[in-house]
Write a structure and sequence with these properties.
224 residues, alpha+beta, TolA/TonB C-terminal domain, five-stranded mixed β-sheet, 5 helices
């Protein structure tokens, strides 16, 4: 038996039409997909909260000053003193004797004991400083006439001031000669030699007694 289709049920004739409709629908869907715009939505996090922390200011605790204790009130107690005091009636002032009595001149007591001065002590400052015989001018003349400029210092062109310290003893002699600051070249040794060869000084005095005195003296070496 041969199976026949009705002409209305035959879909082969409408195949091309359905194909075109499908292509058109697909193109429209693609265009719509490309033209579709989406916007980013802001995300809100309700679990976070921004807060500015402000440091808590420490307020010092002020306590009211306690008032000073009140001054004690003066005592109003009255002390009763017995007036039964015996008075010596034998105290008599002899006016005539006071007038006629010779008054002796008051003589202050003067201690003759002198303060002992240790002779071994070396003084830095005294009432009367030691002095070269003849004074400062004689000291300059002595140094000028007795200093011999060392050959090494002269050839090397060394010049300057040598500071020397020494002790003027009680008898005026010179001891403990040392160089405080030198310039070298034999000038230090020459300054010590000249100081040791000095004549006796007039010693320093403290309370009218000769004492040992530390003395400092600059000696200048200068090339002409």
């Amino acid at each position: 038996m041969e199976i026949k289709k009705a002409p209305k049920a035959d879909l082969e004739r409408k195949k091309s039409m359905f194909l075109q409709i499908g292509i058109i629908v697909t193109l429209i869907a693609v265009l719509v997909a490309f033209e579709w715009r989406t916007y980013e939505r802001p995300e809100y996090d309700l679990g976070t909260l921004d807060m500015d922390f402000i440091e808590e200011e420490e307020i010092p605790i002020t306590r009211p000053e306690e008032p000073p204790p009140p001054e004690p009130e003066p005592s109003t107690d009255i002390m009763i003193v017995d007036d039964d005091v015996e008075i010596d009636d034998d105290f008599v002032v002899d006016v005539e004797a006071l007038v006629d009595t010779e008054v002796r001149e008051f003589v202050p007591v003067v201690t003759t004991q002198e303060e002992e001065v240790d002779e071994d002590v070396i003084f830095q400052i005294v009432e009367d400083q030691p002095e070269f015989p003849g004074g400062e001018e004689a000291l300059r003349r002595y140094l000028r006439d007795n200093i011999r400029y060392p050959v090494v210092a002269r050839e090397a062109g060394i010049q300057g001031t040598v500071f020397v310290t020494f002790v003027v003893e009680i008898d005026g002699s010179v001891s403990n000669v040392e160089v405080l600051r030198g310039i070298g070249g034999g000038c230090d040794e020459e300054a010590v030699r000249v100081v040791r060869a000095m004549p006796a000084w007039q010693p320093g005095r403290q309370r009218d007694r000769p004492v040992r005195v530390q003395y400092r003296m600059p000696i200048t070496f200068r090339l002409n």
